[in-house]
Protein backbone atom coordinates (compact mmCIF):
# COMPACT_ATOMS: atom_id res chain seq x y z
CA UNK A 1 0.00 0.00 0.00
CA UNK A 2 1.52 3.33 -1.05
CA UNK A 3 -1.09 5.55 0.58
CA UNK A 4 -1.76 5.25 4.31
CA UNK A 5 -4.45 2.79 5.35
CA UNK A 6 -6.83 1.84 8.14
CA UNK A 7 -5.87 -0.78 10.74
CA UNK A 8 -7.53 -3.34 8.46
CA UNK A 9 -5.31 -2.23 5.54
CA UNK A 10 -8.28 -0.77 3.67
CA UNK A 11 -8.80 2.85 2.67
CA UNK A 12 -8.31 5.16 5.63
CA UNK A 13 -11.08 7.68 6.34
CA UNK A 14 -9.20 10.42 8.16
CA UNK A 15 -12.09 12.72 7.29
CA UNK A 16 -14.20 10.61 9.67
CA UNK A 17 -11.62 10.79 12.46
CA UNK A 18 -9.93 7.46 11.72
CA UNK A 19 -6.24 7.20 12.66
CA UNK A 20 -4.29 6.23 9.55
CA UNK A 21 -1.31 3.88 9.61
CA UNK A 22 1.30 2.47 7.21
CA UNK A 23 1.89 4.00 3.76
CA UNK A 24 5.16 4.35 1.87
CA UNK A 25 6.02 7.71 3.50
CA UNK A 26 6.03 6.09 6.96
CA UNK A 27 8.04 3.15 5.67
CA UNK A 28 10.59 5.50 4.11
CA UNK A 29 10.94 7.46 7.35
CA UNK A 30 11.30 4.30 9.46
CA UNK A 31 13.85 2.77 7.08
CA UNK A 32 15.88 6.01 7.02
CA UNK A 33 15.84 6.17 10.81
CA UNK A 34 17.02 2.55 11.15
CA UNK A 35 19.76 3.08 8.59
CA UNK A 36 20.98 6.08 10.54
CA UNK A 37 20.69 4.34 13.91
CA UNK A 38 22.67 1.31 12.73
CA UNK A 39 25.04 3.15 10.42
CA UNK A 40 28.14 1.73 12.11
CA UNK A 41 26.74 -1.78 11.70
CA UNK A 42 26.34 -1.28 7.92
CA UNK A 43 22.70 -2.40 7.69
CA UNK A 44 21.06 -4.16 4.73
CA UNK A 45 17.59 -3.37 3.40
CA UNK A 46 16.03 -6.36 1.64
CA UNK A 47 12.74 -6.60 -0.26
CA UNK A 48 11.10 -10.04 -0.76
CA UNK A 49 8.79 -9.14 -3.66
CA UNK A 50 5.07 -8.68 -4.40
CA UNK A 51 5.35 -4.93 -4.81
CA UNK A 52 2.77 -4.92 -7.62
CA UNK A 53 -1.01 -4.94 -7.07
CA UNK A 54 -3.20 -4.26 -4.09
CA UNK A 55 -4.98 -0.97 -4.67
CA UNK A 56 -6.32 1.38 -7.29
CA UNK A 57 -2.90 3.04 -7.29
CA UNK A 58 -1.49 0.10 -9.18
CA UNK A 59 -4.46 -0.12 -11.52
CA UNK A 60 -3.77 3.44 -12.61
CA UNK A 61 0.03 3.84 -12.46
CA UNK A 62 1.11 0.20 -13.01
CA UNK A 63 4.85 -0.54 -12.67
CA UNK A 64 5.92 3.10 -12.79
CA UNK A 65 4.61 4.01 -9.34
CA UNK A 66 6.20 0.89 -7.85
CA UNK A 67 9.55 1.80 -9.38
CA UNK A 68 9.32 5.40 -8.11
CA UNK A 69 8.85 4.37 -4.50
CA UNK A 70 11.28 1.44 -4.60
CA UNK A 71 13.90 3.87 -5.90
CA UNK A 72 13.28 6.12 -2.91
CA UNK A 73 13.77 3.22 -0.48
CA UNK A 74 16.71 1.91 -2.53
CA UNK A 75 16.98 -1.60 -1.07
CA UNK A 76 20.33 -3.37 -1.21
CA UNK A 77 18.72 -6.37 -2.90
CA UNK A 78 15.30 -7.56 -4.04
CA UNK A 79 13.69 -10.70 -5.35
CA UNK A 80 10.50 -11.12 -7.37
CA UNK A 81 7.06 -12.15 -6.13
CA UNK A 82 4.34 -13.86 -8.13
CA UNK A 83 2.37 -10.62 -8.50
CA UNK A 84 5.23 -8.99 -10.41
CA UNK A 85 4.13 -11.21 -13.32
CA UNK A 86 0.45 -10.23 -13.25
CA UNK A 87 0.82 -7.96 -16.28
CA UNK A 88 2.93 -10.50 -18.13
CA UNK A 89 6.58 -10.17 -19.04
CA UNK A 90 5.84 -6.94 -20.91
CA UNK A 91 4.68 -5.44 -17.61
CA UNK A 92 7.74 -6.66 -15.74
CA UNK A 93 10.64 -5.98 -18.14
CA UNK A 94 10.52 -2.13 -17.97
CA UNK A 95 10.32 -2.28 -14.17
CA UNK A 96 13.41 -4.46 -13.96
CA UNK A 97 15.22 -2.29 -16.49
CA UNK A 98 14.48 0.79 -14.38
CA UNK A 99 15.72 -0.87 -11.17
CA UNK A 100 18.93 -1.90 -12.89
CA UNK A 101 19.41 1.64 -14.23
CA UNK A 102 19.35 3.07 -10.70
CA UNK A 103 21.56 0.39 -9.19
CA UNK A 104 18.96 -1.73 -7.39
CA UNK A 105 19.78 -5.44 -7.93
CA UNK A 106 17.12 -8.13 -8.30
CA UNK A 107 18.22 -11.72 -7.64
CA UNK A 108 16.34 -14.92 -8.49
CA UNK A 109 18.20 -18.22 -8.48
CA UNK A 110 15.46 -20.57 -9.72
CA UNK A 111 14.17 -18.66 -12.75
CA UNK A 112 15.20 -19.72 -16.27
CA UNK A 113 14.50 -17.34 -19.17
CA UNK A 114 15.38 -19.00 -22.48
CA UNK A 115 13.68 -16.36 -24.65
CA UNK A 116 15.04 -13.10 -23.26
CA UNK A 117 11.61 -11.87 -22.22
CA UNK A 118 13.03 -10.00 -19.23
CA UNK A 119 16.47 -8.60 -18.33
CA UNK A 120 18.98 -11.17 -17.14
CA UNK A 121 18.78 -11.64 -13.37
CA UNK A 122 21.67 -13.07 -11.34
CA UNK A 123 20.94 -15.94 -8.92
CA UNK A 124 22.78 -14.19 -6.12
CA UNK A 125 25.10 -11.32 -5.30
CA UNK A 126 27.89 -10.68 -2.83
CA UNK A 127 27.86 -7.53 -0.70
CA UNK A 128 30.94 -6.44 1.23
CA UNK A 129 30.33 -5.14 4.75
CA UNK A 130 33.05 -4.45 7.36
CA UNK A 131 35.54 -6.54 5.37
CA UNK A 132 33.15 -9.49 5.33
CA UNK A 133 31.41 -10.99 2.33
CA UNK A 134 27.65 -11.47 2.56
CA UNK A 135 25.89 -13.60 -0.04
CA UNK A 136 22.27 -12.81 -0.96
CA UNK A 137 20.40 -15.58 -2.81
CA UNK A 138 17.02 -14.78 -4.36
CA UNK A 139 14.34 -17.44 -4.78
CA UNK A 140 10.69 -17.45 -5.84
CA UNK A 141 7.92 -20.02 -5.34
CA UNK A 142 8.58 -22.72 -7.91
CA UNK A 143 4.90 -23.01 -8.87
CA UNK A 144 4.64 -19.32 -9.78
CA UNK A 145 3.72 -20.32 -13.33
CA UNK A 146 0.45 -21.64 -11.86
CA UNK A 147 -0.29 -18.35 -10.11
CA UNK A 148 0.59 -15.66 -12.63
CA UNK A 149 1.37 -14.87 -16.26
CA UNK A 150 4.99 -15.98 -16.52
CA UNK A 151 5.06 -16.70 -20.25
CA UNK A 152 7.78 -19.18 -21.23
CA UNK A 153 9.79 -18.72 -18.04
CA UNK A 154 10.74 -21.88 -16.17
CA UNK A 155 11.10 -22.30 -12.41
CA UNK A 156 13.34 -24.90 -10.82
CA UNK A 157 12.87 -26.46 -7.40
CA UNK A 158 13.33 -23.68 -4.86
CA UNK A 159 15.01 -25.70 -2.12
CA UNK A 160 17.40 -27.64 -4.35
CA UNK A 161 18.41 -24.46 -6.17
CA UNK A 162 19.12 -22.58 -2.94
CA UNK A 163 21.18 -25.48 -1.64
CA UNK A 164 23.31 -25.51 -4.82
CA UNK A 165 23.74 -21.73 -4.92
CA UNK A 166 24.71 -21.57 -1.24
CA UNK A 167 27.36 -24.23 -1.88
CA UNK A 168 28.79 -22.14 -4.73
CA UNK A 169 28.96 -19.06 -2.52
CA UNK A 170 30.63 -21.03 0.26
CA UNK A 171 33.27 -22.27 -2.18
CA UNK A 172 33.95 -18.62 -3.09
CA UNK A 173 34.73 -17.86 0.54
CA UNK A 174 31.36 -16.36 1.49
CA UNK A 175 30.56 -17.36 5.07
CA UNK A 176 27.42 -15.31 5.71
CA UNK A 177 24.52 -16.25 3.44
CA UNK A 178 21.03 -14.75 3.42
CA UNK A 179 18.18 -16.15 1.34
CA UNK A 180 15.69 -13.60 0.05
CA UNK A 181 12.65 -15.81 -0.48
CA UNK A 182 9.20 -15.39 -1.96
CA UNK A 183 8.12 -18.97 -1.25
CA UNK A 184 6.03 -18.70 1.92
CA UNK A 185 6.73 -19.52 5.54
CA UNK A 186 6.18 -23.29 5.39
CA UNK A 187 8.52 -23.71 2.42
CA UNK A 188 11.05 -21.43 4.13
CA UNK A 189 10.99 -23.75 7.16
CA UNK A 190 11.58 -26.73 4.92
CA UNK A 191 14.34 -24.83 3.14
CA UNK A 192 16.06 -24.12 6.45
CA UNK A 193 15.92 -27.81 7.34
CA UNK A 194 17.01 -29.19 3.97
CA UNK A 195 19.25 -26.47 2.54
CA UNK A 196 20.53 -24.82 5.71
CA UNK A 197 24.06 -26.23 5.89
CA UNK A 198 25.39 -22.87 4.67
CA UNK A 199 22.34 -20.59 4.98
CA UNK A 200 22.14 -18.29 8.00
CA UNK A 201 19.00 -16.17 7.55
CA UNK A 202 15.90 -16.45 5.36
CA UNK A 203 14.03 -13.19 4.74
CA UNK A 204 10.65 -14.30 3.43
CA UNK A 205 7.41 -13.23 1.83
CA UNK A 206 4.42 -14.63 -0.10
CA UNK A 207 2.44 -16.13 2.81
CA UNK A 208 1.87 -12.75 4.55
CA UNK A 209 2.91 -14.33 7.85
CA UNK A 210 2.88 -12.15 10.94
CA UNK A 211 5.80 -13.19 13.15
CA UNK A 212 5.99 -11.59 16.58
CA UNK A 213 7.46 -12.50 19.96
CA UNK A 214 5.12 -11.28 22.73
CA UNK A 215 8.00 -10.93 25.18
CA UNK A 216 9.56 -8.25 22.93
CA UNK A 217 7.10 -5.74 24.36
CA UNK A 218 6.95 -3.93 21.03
CA UNK A 219 3.70 -2.39 19.79
CA UNK A 220 1.58 -4.31 17.29
CA UNK A 221 -2.00 -4.50 16.12
CA UNK A 222 -3.79 -7.08 18.25
CA UNK A 223 -6.13 -7.86 15.34
CA UNK A 224 -3.18 -9.46 13.52
CA UNK A 225 -2.87 -13.20 14.14
CA UNK A 226 0.61 -14.20 15.33
CA UNK A 227 1.93 -17.15 13.31
CA UNK A 228 5.25 -17.64 15.07
CA UNK A 229 8.10 -15.96 16.90
CA UNK A 230 10.22 -13.23 15.34
CA UNK A 231 12.46 -14.74 14.20
CA UNK A 232 11.39 -18.35 13.70
CA UNK A 233 14.44 -20.44 14.61
CA UNK A 234 15.01 -23.75 12.80
CA UNK A 235 17.75 -26.15 13.87
CA UNK A 236 18.88 -28.47 11.08
CA UNK A 237 20.34 -31.98 11.33
CA UNK A 238 23.83 -30.59 11.92
CA UNK A 239 22.70 -28.44 14.81
CA UNK A 240 22.96 -25.14 12.93
CA UNK A 241 20.36 -22.52 13.75
CA UNK A 242 18.75 -20.75 10.78
CA UNK A 243 16.64 -17.63 11.37
CA UNK A 244 13.47 -16.95 9.37
CA UNK A 245 11.74 -13.57 9.33
CA UNK A 246 8.73 -12.16 7.55
CA UNK A 247 6.83 -8.92 8.11
CA UNK A 248 3.17 -9.59 7.27
CA UNK A 249 1.84 -7.52 4.34
CA UNK A 250 0.40 -4.20 3.10
CA UNK A 251 3.27 -2.13 4.51
CA UNK A 252 1.83 -2.51 8.00
CA UNK A 253 5.18 -3.56 9.47
CA UNK A 254 8.83 -3.54 8.49
CA UNK A 255 11.11 -6.25 9.82
CA UNK A 256 14.10 -5.32 11.98
CA UNK A 257 16.63 -8.08 12.68
CA UNK A 258 20.13 -7.68 14.14
CA UNK A 259 22.42 -10.70 13.97
CA UNK A 260 25.89 -11.18 15.40
CA UNK A 261 28.36 -13.57 13.74
CA UNK A 262 31.59 -15.14 14.97
CA UNK A 263 34.81 -15.26 12.95
CA UNK A 264 33.60 -18.38 11.11
CA UNK A 265 30.40 -16.72 9.96
CA UNK A 266 28.14 -18.55 12.43
CA UNK A 267 25.32 -16.75 14.21
CA UNK A 268 25.98 -16.41 17.93
CA UNK A 269 23.26 -13.93 18.93
CA UNK A 270 20.28 -12.11 17.46
CA UNK A 271 17.50 -9.74 18.40
CA UNK A 272 14.68 -8.12 16.49
CA UNK A 273 10.97 -7.55 15.96
CA UNK A 274 8.51 -6.22 13.39
CA UNK A 275 8.22 -2.44 13.57
CA UNK A 276 4.56 -1.39 13.48
CA UNK A 277 3.90 1.51 11.12
CA UNK A 278 1.31 2.98 13.45
CA UNK A 279 -0.21 6.44 13.33
CA UNK A 280 2.52 8.17 15.35
CA UNK A 281 5.34 7.12 13.01
CA UNK A 282 6.50 10.21 11.12
CA UNK A 283 6.15 10.41 7.34
CA UNK A 284 9.21 11.15 5.20
CA UNK A 285 8.82 14.66 3.79
CA UNK A 286 9.74 14.22 0.10
CA UNK A 287 7.91 10.90 -0.13
CA UNK A 288 4.84 12.35 1.56
CA UNK A 289 4.80 15.15 -1.02
CA UNK A 290 5.13 12.65 -3.88
CA UNK A 291 2.28 10.56 -2.46
CA UNK A 292 0.14 13.69 -2.23
CA UNK A 293 0.89 14.58 -5.85
CA UNK A 294 0.19 11.10 -7.18
CA UNK A 295 -2.93 10.79 -5.03
CA UNK A 296 -4.59 13.59 -7.02
CA UNK A 297 -4.04 11.64 -10.23
CA UNK A 298 -5.37 8.47 -8.64
CA UNK A 299 -8.42 10.27 -7.26
CA UNK A 300 -9.21 11.63 -10.72
CA UNK A 301 -9.04 8.12 -12.15
CA UNK A 302 -10.99 6.67 -9.22
CA UNK A 303 -13.88 9.10 -9.68
CA UNK A 304 -14.15 8.60 -13.46
CA UNK A 305 -17.57 7.26 -14.49
CA UNK A 306 -17.41 3.99 -16.42
CA UNK A 307 -21.07 2.88 -16.44
CA UNK A 308 -24.47 3.36 -14.87
CA UNK A 309 -26.70 0.94 -12.96
CA UNK A 310 -30.44 1.32 -12.62
CA UNK A 311 -30.62 -1.41 -10.00
CA UNK A 312 -28.75 -1.88 -6.74
CA UNK A 313 -25.87 -4.35 -7.02
CA UNK A 314 -26.09 -5.66 -3.47
CA UNK A 315 -23.23 -7.44 -1.70
CA UNK A 316 -24.56 -8.09 1.81
CA UNK A 317 -26.49 -11.21 0.76
CA UNK A 318 -23.81 -12.80 -1.43
CA UNK A 319 -22.76 -15.39 1.17
CA UNK A 320 -26.28 -16.75 1.65
CA UNK A 321 -27.86 -16.57 -1.80
CA UNK A 322 -27.54 -15.33 -5.35
CA UNK A 323 -26.70 -11.62 -5.37
CA UNK A 324 -26.64 -9.11 -8.19
CA UNK A 325 -23.05 -8.01 -7.58
CA UNK A 326 -21.92 -11.61 -7.76
CA UNK A 327 -24.01 -12.29 -10.86
CA UNK A 328 -22.68 -9.36 -12.87
CA UNK A 329 -19.11 -10.15 -11.83
CA UNK A 330 -19.55 -13.78 -12.93
CA UNK A 331 -21.03 -12.57 -16.22
CA UNK A 332 -18.01 -10.30 -16.69
CA UNK A 333 -15.37 -12.98 -16.28
CA UNK A 334 -17.34 -15.44 -18.45
CA UNK A 335 -17.66 -12.78 -21.14
CA UNK A 336 -13.88 -12.28 -21.23
CA UNK A 337 -13.38 -15.80 -22.62
CA UNK A 338 -16.54 -15.84 -24.76
CA UNK A 339 -16.55 -15.71 -28.56
CA UNK A 340 -18.95 -16.77 -31.33
CA UNK A 341 -18.21 -20.47 -30.89
CA UNK A 342 -17.30 -20.69 -27.22
CA UNK A 343 -19.08 -19.72 -24.01
CA UNK A 344 -17.73 -21.01 -20.68
CA UNK A 345 -19.56 -21.10 -17.38
CA UNK A 346 -18.26 -19.00 -14.49
CA UNK A 347 -18.15 -19.56 -10.72
CA UNK A 348 -16.97 -17.10 -8.06
CA UNK A 349 -16.91 -17.66 -4.29
CA UNK A 350 -18.99 -15.14 -2.34
CA UNK A 351 -16.06 -14.11 -0.15
CA UNK A 352 -14.61 -12.29 -3.14
CA UNK A 353 -17.09 -9.42 -2.76
CA UNK A 354 -16.65 -6.60 -0.27
CA UNK A 355 -18.57 -3.46 -1.23
CA UNK A 356 -22.00 -3.05 -2.86
CA UNK A 357 -22.58 -0.77 -5.85
CA UNK A 358 -25.77 1.29 -5.38
CA UNK A 359 -27.90 2.43 -8.29
CA UNK A 360 -26.49 5.40 -10.12
CA UNK A 361 -23.14 6.12 -11.72
CA UNK A 362 -20.40 3.50 -11.41
CA UNK A 363 -16.81 4.73 -11.08
CA UNK A 364 -13.48 2.93 -11.38
CA UNK A 365 -13.22 3.00 -7.59
CA UNK A 366 -16.65 1.41 -7.22
CA UNK A 367 -15.70 -1.44 -9.54
CA UNK A 368 -12.32 -2.11 -7.92
CA UNK A 369 -13.66 -1.78 -4.38
CA UNK A 370 -16.45 -4.27 -5.04
CA UNK A 371 -13.91 -7.09 -5.48
CA UNK A 372 -10.58 -5.72 -4.25
CA UNK A 373 -8.37 -8.81 -4.00
CA UNK A 374 -6.37 -8.53 -7.25
CA UNK A 375 -7.02 -12.05 -8.54
CA UNK A 376 -6.30 -13.19 -12.06
CA UNK A 377 -9.20 -14.45 -14.22
CA UNK A 378 -8.53 -18.08 -15.10
CA UNK A 379 -10.02 -20.68 -17.45
CA UNK A 380 -10.08 -24.23 -16.09
CA UNK A 381 -10.95 -27.53 -17.72
CA UNK A 382 -12.95 -29.49 -15.12
CA UNK A 383 -14.99 -32.65 -15.04
CA UNK A 384 -18.64 -32.24 -14.20
CA UNK A 385 -18.28 -34.01 -10.86
CA UNK A 386 -15.53 -31.57 -9.76
CA UNK A 387 -17.73 -28.61 -10.73
CA UNK A 388 -20.63 -30.16 -8.80
CA UNK A 389 -18.44 -30.58 -5.71
CA UNK A 390 -17.27 -26.96 -5.88
CA UNK A 391 -20.88 -25.82 -5.76
CA UNK A 392 -21.72 -28.31 -2.99
CA UNK A 393 -18.87 -26.88 -0.91
CA UNK A 394 -20.26 -23.36 -1.32
CA UNK A 395 -23.44 -24.30 0.55
CA UNK A 396 -21.68 -25.97 3.50
CA UNK A 397 -21.26 -24.10 6.79
CA UNK A 398 -17.58 -23.10 6.95
CA UNK A 399 -15.20 -23.02 9.91
CA UNK A 400 -16.03 -19.32 10.13
CA UNK A 401 -19.71 -20.34 10.64
CA UNK A 402 -21.02 -18.93 7.37
CA UNK A 403 -21.86 -20.00 3.83
CA UNK A 404 -19.85 -19.06 0.77
CA UNK A 405 -22.58 -19.37 -1.87
CA UNK A 406 -21.19 -19.62 -5.37
CA UNK A 407 -22.05 -16.74 -7.68
CA UNK A 408 -22.46 -18.11 -11.19
CA UNK A 409 -22.95 -17.43 -14.89
CA UNK A 410 -24.15 -19.88 -17.55
CA UNK A 411 -25.52 -22.40 -15.05
CA UNK A 412 -28.63 -22.85 -12.91
CA UNK A 413 -28.59 -24.57 -9.52
CA UNK A 414 -31.19 -25.86 -7.08
CA UNK A 415 -30.11 -26.66 -3.49
CA UNK A 416 -31.82 -27.63 -0.25
CA UNK A 417 -30.03 -26.58 2.94
CA UNK A 418 -32.19 -28.90 5.02
CA UNK A 419 -30.24 -31.85 3.64
CA UNK A 420 -26.93 -33.05 5.07
CA UNK A 421 -23.66 -31.34 3.97
CA UNK A 422 -22.35 -32.28 0.53
CA UNK A 423 -25.76 -33.68 -0.45
CA UNK A 424 -27.57 -30.34 -0.69
CA UNK A 425 -27.30 -29.63 -4.43
CA UNK A 426 -30.30 -31.22 -6.14
CA UNK A 427 -29.82 -30.06 -9.70
CA UNK A 428 -27.30 -28.24 -11.88
CA UNK A 429 -28.07 -27.23 -15.46
CA UNK A 430 -25.57 -25.81 -17.94
CA UNK A 431 -26.52 -23.45 -20.75
CA UNK A 432 -26.07 -24.80 -24.27
CA UNK A 433 -24.18 -22.37 -26.51
CA UNK A 434 -26.23 -23.06 -29.64
CA UNK A 435 -29.78 -23.33 -28.31
CA UNK A 436 -29.37 -21.14 -25.18
CA UNK A 437 -31.41 -23.80 -23.35
CA UNK A 438 -30.20 -25.39 -20.11
CA UNK A 439 -29.26 -29.06 -19.96
CA UNK A 440 -28.46 -31.24 -16.91
CA UNK A 441 -24.79 -31.24 -15.95
CA UNK A 442 -23.02 -34.44 -17.01
CA UNK A 443 -20.74 -35.50 -14.16
CA UNK A 444 -18.36 -37.39 -16.46
CA UNK A 445 -18.14 -34.73 -19.17
CA UNK A 446 -15.57 -31.91 -19.17
CA UNK A 447 -16.47 -28.23 -18.95
CA UNK A 448 -14.65 -24.97 -19.43
CA UNK A 449 -15.03 -23.03 -16.20
CA UNK A 450 -13.93 -19.45 -15.59
CA UNK A 451 -13.02 -18.52 -12.04
CA UNK A 452 -10.51 -16.47 -10.05
CA UNK A 453 -6.98 -17.49 -9.06
CA UNK A 454 -8.01 -17.71 -5.40
CA UNK A 455 -10.55 -20.43 -6.04
CA UNK A 456 -8.46 -22.05 -8.81
CA UNK A 457 -5.70 -22.56 -6.22
CA UNK A 458 -8.07 -24.60 -4.03
CA UNK A 459 -8.32 -22.03 -1.25
CA UNK A 460 -11.18 -21.76 1.26
CA UNK A 461 -11.61 -25.50 0.93
CA UNK A 462 -12.43 -25.44 -2.80
CA UNK A 463 -9.93 -28.26 -3.36
CA UNK A 464 -11.80 -29.73 -6.34
CA UNK A 465 -10.53 -26.87 -8.52
CA UNK A 466 -7.12 -28.51 -8.28
CA UNK A 467 -8.50 -31.44 -10.30
CA UNK A 468 -8.46 -29.32 -13.45
CA UNK A 469 -6.66 -30.82 -16.45
CA UNK A 470 -5.80 -27.43 -17.90
CA UNK A 471 -5.44 -23.98 -16.37
CA UNK A 472 -5.14 -20.81 -18.44
CA UNK A 473 -4.15 -17.65 -16.56
CA UNK A 474 -5.73 -14.40 -17.70
CA UNK A 475 -5.69 -10.72 -16.71
CA UNK A 476 -6.43 -8.94 -13.47
CA UNK A 477 -10.06 -9.34 -12.40
CA UNK A 478 -10.65 -5.61 -11.87
CA UNK A 479 -9.49 -4.88 -15.44
CA UNK A 480 -11.94 -7.48 -16.76
CA UNK A 481 -14.79 -6.18 -14.59
CA UNK A 482 -14.21 -2.55 -15.59
CA UNK A 483 -14.04 -3.53 -19.26
CA UNK A 484 -17.33 -5.40 -19.04
CA UNK A 485 -19.11 -2.55 -17.27
CA UNK A 486 -17.91 -0.15 -19.97
CA UNK A 487 -19.24 -2.57 -22.58
CA UNK A 488 -22.68 -2.77 -20.95
CA UNK A 489 -22.84 1.00 -20.30
CA UNK A 490 -26.16 0.67 -18.44
CA UNK A 491 -27.11 -2.21 -16.12
CA UNK A 492 -30.77 -3.10 -15.90
CA UNK A 493 -32.90 -6.06 -14.86
CA UNK A 494 -33.09 -6.97 -18.54
CA UNK A 495 -29.34 -7.45 -19.06
CA UNK A 496 -28.67 -8.86 -15.59
CA UNK A 497 -30.88 -11.91 -15.33
CA UNK A 498 -31.71 -13.42 -11.96
CA UNK A 499 -32.87 -16.95 -11.16
CA UNK A 500 -29.46 -18.63 -11.22
CA UNK A 501 -29.24 -20.26 -7.81
CA UNK A 502 -32.43 -21.42 -6.04
CA UNK A 503 -31.86 -22.23 -2.36
CA UNK A 504 -34.43 -23.74 -0.02
CA UNK A 505 -34.12 -23.81 3.78
CA UNK A 506 -31.60 -22.40 6.23
CA UNK A 507 -28.48 -23.81 7.83
CA UNK A 508 -26.70 -23.20 11.13
CA UNK A 509 -24.18 -26.04 11.12
Automatic annotation (TrEMBL):
E.C. number: 3.6.1.5
- Identify the InterPro entries for this entry: 5'-Nucleotdase_C, 5'-Nucleotdase_C_sf, 5'-Nucleotdase_CS, 5_nucleotidase/apyrase, Calcineurin-like_PHP, Metallo-depent_PP-like
Q: Which cofactor does it need?
A: a divalent metal cation
Q: Which SUPFAM superfamilies match?
A: 5'-nucleotidase (syn. UDP-sugar hydrolase), C-terminal domain (SSF55816), Metallo-dependent phosphatases (SSF56300)
The entry's keywords: Glycoprotein, Hemostasis impairing toxin, Hydrolase, Metal-binding, Nucleotide-binding, Platelet aggregation inhibiting toxin, Secreted, Signal, Toxin
Domain 5'-Nucleotidase C-terminal residues, every copy: 309-465
Cite the GO molecular-function annotations of the record: 5'-nucleotidase activity; apyrase activity; metal ion binding; nucleotide binding; toxin activity
Q: Per its UniProt entry, which superkingdom is the organism in?
A: Eukaryota
Q: Which residues form the Calcineurin-like phosphoesterase domain?
A: 23-209
Location in the cell reads: Secreted
Presence of the UniProt keyword Hydrolase in the record: yes
Return the broad EC class.
hydrolase
**Any one biological process term the GO annotation gives:** AMP catabolic process
UniProt cross-references to Pfam families, sorted A to Z: 5_nucleotid_C, Metallophos
Q: Which GO terms describe its cellular component?
A: extracellular space; plasma membrane
* Similarity annotation: Belongs to the 5'-nucleotidase family.
Protein name as it appears in the record: Apyrase
The organism that produces this protein has a lineage beginning with: Eukaryota, Metazoa, Ecdysozoa, Arthropoda, Hexapoda
Amino acid sequence: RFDETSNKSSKCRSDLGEECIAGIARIHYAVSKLRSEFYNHTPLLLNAGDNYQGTIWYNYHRWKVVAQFIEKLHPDAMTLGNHEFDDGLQGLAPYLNHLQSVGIPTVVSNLIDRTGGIPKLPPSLIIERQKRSIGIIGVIYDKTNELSKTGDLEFTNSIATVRAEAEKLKQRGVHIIIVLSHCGLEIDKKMATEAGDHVDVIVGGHSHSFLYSPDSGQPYNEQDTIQGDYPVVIENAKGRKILIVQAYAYGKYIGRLTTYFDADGEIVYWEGYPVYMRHDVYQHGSTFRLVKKLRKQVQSYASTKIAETRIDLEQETCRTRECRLGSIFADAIADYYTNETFHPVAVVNAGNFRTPIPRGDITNEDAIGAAPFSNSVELLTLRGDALWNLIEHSVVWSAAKRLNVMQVSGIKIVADLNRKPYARVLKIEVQDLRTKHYKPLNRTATYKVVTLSFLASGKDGFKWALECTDRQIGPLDSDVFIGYLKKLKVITEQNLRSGRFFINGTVTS
